[in-house]
Amino acid sequence: MDRIVSTLSPTRRQVSQGLASLPLATLLGSPSLAQDVAATLDEVSLELGSGRVVKGALARPQAHPVATMLIIHEWWGLNDQIKTMAAAFAKLGYLTLACDLYNGVVATTSADAGYTMGQVKPEEATETLVGWADWLKTQESSTGKIGTCGWCFGGGWSLGASLATPVDATVIYYGNVAKSAEELSALKGPVLGHFGSRDTYINEEMVSGFQAALAEAGKAAEIYSYNADHAFANPTTARYDEEDAALAWTRTTEFLKAHLG
């Protein structure tokens, strides 16, 4: 059972349209602007088969029917920046759900983020992502096509969602991709990956292994390496790389258009 807590009022719609005219990097890099964008989204609740109730933020495009996007937050949690990304995908024409794998917790320090990430139970996260994917695909305004996208912690779970349920397109930003060819055989759609060559977390060895496993499994993939560090697409960090972030976003939008329409 799903429940939409709020709807977009005329005032909120005007705010949303005004903010949509600003560059994405500007919105992401400004906490106050990101907060304004986040306020235009709807809060949605979903009761899963286990009885757990999970929440997310829903961004609606103006037209329909449309393909859908399930996006997954970084290790910080479902913050205003990720909600702003949901709005950006909606601007492209996708019904977009930013899910919450932290049950409402938003970390503000690395220590808190690491601790909260460590509390996530893989089986519960998988159930949450599959539940939201099914929900998106069956919405009246949906074409039934779905893509996933995530960053850092969410990048790994973007892949995880696509391994757990049929997905038409998977986008990974510097997420954990340590998977075998046997595991990757479950993929039903192509993969787009963005990785930083100077990333010491999701390093070259892991990414090369991922590429080899994808090839062994016979799966279509576009894997890009940027001369950048981890989290290079996040304007709120010192590791932000404006040029590479813009290129990765262009590649993401083109990839989704090719595979979702």
Structure in a nutshell:
The chain is of the alpha/beta class.
Could you walk me through the main structural features you see in this protein, from its secondary elements to its overall organization?
Helix 3 (31-38) packs across helix 4 and helix 6 (122-137) crosses helix 7 (153-164). The longest helix has 19 residues, at 242-260. The chain has a single domain, classed as Alpha/Beta hydrolase fold, catalytic domain (Rossmann fold), CATH 3.40.50. The chain has ten helices and nine strands. Helix 7 (153-164) links the parallel strand 6 (142-151) and strand 7. With 261 residues, it is an alpha/beta fold.
According to CATH, what is the class? Answer: Alpha Beta
Look up the CATH topology: Rossmann fold
Helix content: 40-55%
Beta-strand level of the residues, as a percent range?
A: 15-25%
> Into how many domains do the coordinates divide?
1
What is the number of helical segments per DSSP (H or I, 4+ residues)? 10
Shape: globular
Layout: helices, strands, pairs:
Blueprint lengths: L1 E3 L5 H11 L3 H6 L1 H8 L3 E6 L5 E7 L6 E7 L7 H12 L3 E5 L10 H9 L3 H16 L4 E10 L1 H12 L4 E5 L7 H4 L6 E6 L7 H14 L3 E6 L15 H19 L1
Parallel strand pairs: 4-5, 4-6, 6-7, 7-8, 8-9
Antiparallel strand pairs: 1-2, 2-3, 3-5
Key features of this structure:
261 residues; alpha/beta; Rossmann fold; nine-stranded mixed sheet; 43% helix; globular; disordered N terminus
